[in-house]
Design a protein that fits this description.
The protein contains one helix and no strands. The chain is mainly α. It binds zinc ion.
Length: 53
């Protein structure tokens, strides 16, 4: 039995502006590992904190 790994097309680059990092075919994200964290972090919807009295 052979498992077929799902791979993305080669030659993709990170979607982050000015980033020239190539994405691995095993990386199905739009961003490289560096910017993936940054983007997900900044796009996180931060819950509004309310001070409970
Ligand atoms: Zn990047």
């Amino acid at each position: 039995m052979r498992k077929k790994l799902k791979t993305s097309s080669t030659g993709r680059k990170c979607m982050f502006p000015d980033c020239t990092n190539h994405l691995s075919i095993y990386n199905h994200e739009e961003y490289c590992h560096i910017h993936r964290d940054q983007v997900s972090d900044s796009q996180k919807i931060k819950p509004a904190y309310h001070h409970v009295i």
